[in-house]
């Protein structure tokens, strides 16, 4: 890395419990998400991302609306999606919504495009799952044309074509920061390089450093397509408390229940506590523990994968809002300084052979 690591947060607006163990109504969860983002801005974090879902256990179906509300109550934190399911949306409308967010936030908007890991949006908006690949490829192709902010001529199979049409509003800077979110598919990595877009790795299981071959593939593909070096980010679940034991004990029941609920839909077996402890360990994909433990783990993967940004997926099923707020405060006030100090200490100096 040649610049300071950005540290961000992601949420899906998971429906959380109240103090009596009852689910909060979605409208209250949405208000809590805004409060969480305001705190993230106050403690100096760099990015706040909101994912799109269309189901009972996640409250956010219109991320840009929530992000606009956050923009009005924050000053510096960048705001974006995590991810926007482009396959079941319209590229023109996605660009317009994020360009509008960029305007009202004074240039702080960005978008992470992906296919999403849930498919509820396809029947909801009238798309066929057997066009899963075609929809994303065509719509991404059109979206990258729109990023030029010039008149666009485009033809495809999945939506009406454009003939020398401009899309409004333009961004003030002329460049809407756009990432491609991938879950581990080499094809998706090459696609990001082909379109010259930064790569966001969704690492939610296994060992993060095992993604190093995909990072290498991305760099090689960028070179093949005559692209310059671009940022690489990582999105992973995690939770921070005063001690490792407290963080794991507080996270475990809520995270396990979420995994079991989603697992029933996908044919997964239940998550054991042993598996959770392994994933929460030094080499796993869960960034859970004390500020020191989480900071050490983030710095390790940032150096190992050459990251420009690390986003902590801090919402974890039904884990209550009050505990999430404590985790956010610790992430910004304690974890972030520790990560940056370690990366600065390990950075090569002029004349160092690592440069």
From TrEMBL:
What are the Luciferase-like domain coordinates in residue numbering? 26-306
Coiled coil regions, renumbered to chain:
none
Provide this UniProt record's keywords sorted from A to Z. Monooxygenase, Oxidoreductase
Short name of one Pfam family: Bac_luciferase
The GO cellular component terms are:
cytosol
Please provide, alphabetically and separated by semicolons, the GO molecular function terms listed in this UniProt record.
monooxygenase activity; oxidoreductase activity, acting on paired donors, with incorporation or reduction of molecular oxygen
Q: Which InterPro entries match?
A: Bact_Lucif_Oxidored, LLM_Atu2307-like, Luciferase-like_dom, Luciferase-like_sf
Give yes or no: UniProt keyword Oxidoreductase.
Answer: yes
Q: Which NCBIfam families does the record cross-reference, listed alphabetically?
A: LLM_2I7G
Name of the protein this chain belongs to: Probable oxidoreductase, LLM family
């Amino acid at each position: 890395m040649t610049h300071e690591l950005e540290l961000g947060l992601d949420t899906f607006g998971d429906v959380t419990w109240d103090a009596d163990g009852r689910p909060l109504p979605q409208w209250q969860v949405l208000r809590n998400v805004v409060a969480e983002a305001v705190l993230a801005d106050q403690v100096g974090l760099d990015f706040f991302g909101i994912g799109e879902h269309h189901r009972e256990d996640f409250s956010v179906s219109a991320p840009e609306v929530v992000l606009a509300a956050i923009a009005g109550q924050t000053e510096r934190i960048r705001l974006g999606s995590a991810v926007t399911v482009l396959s079941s949306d319209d590229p023109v409308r996605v660009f317009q919504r994020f360009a509008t967010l960029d305007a009202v936030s004074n240039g702080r908007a960005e978008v992470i495009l992906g296919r999403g890991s849930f498919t509820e949006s396809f029947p909801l908006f009238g798309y066929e799952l057997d066009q899963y690949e075609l929809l994303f490829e065509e719509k991404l192709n059109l979206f990258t044309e729109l990023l030029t902010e010039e008149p666009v001529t485009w033809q495809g199979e999945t939506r009406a074509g454009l003939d020398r049409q401009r899309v409004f509003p333009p961004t003030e800077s002329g460049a809407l920061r756009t990432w491609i979110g991938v879950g581990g598919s080499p094809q998706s990595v090459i696609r990001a390089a082909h379109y010259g877009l930064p790569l966001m790795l969704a690492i939610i299981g296994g060992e993060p450093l095992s993604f190093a071959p995909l990072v290498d593939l991305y760099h090689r593909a960028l070179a093949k397509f005559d692209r310059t070096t671009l940022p690489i980010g990582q999105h992973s679940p995690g939770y921070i408390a005063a001690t490792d034991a407290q963080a794991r004990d507080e996270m475990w029941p809520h995270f396990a229940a979420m995994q079991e609920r989603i697992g029933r839909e996908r044919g997964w077996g239940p998550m054991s506590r042993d598996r959770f402890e392994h994933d929460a360990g030094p080499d796993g994909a869960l960034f859970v523990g004390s500020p020191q433990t989480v900071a050490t783990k983030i710095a390790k993967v940032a150096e190992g994968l050459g990251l420009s940004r690390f986003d902590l997926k801090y919402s974890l099923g039904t884990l209550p809002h009050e505990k999430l707020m404590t985790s956010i405060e610790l992430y910004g006030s304690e974890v972030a300084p520790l990560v940056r100090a370690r990366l600065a200490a390990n950075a090569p100096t002029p004349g160092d052979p690592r440069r």
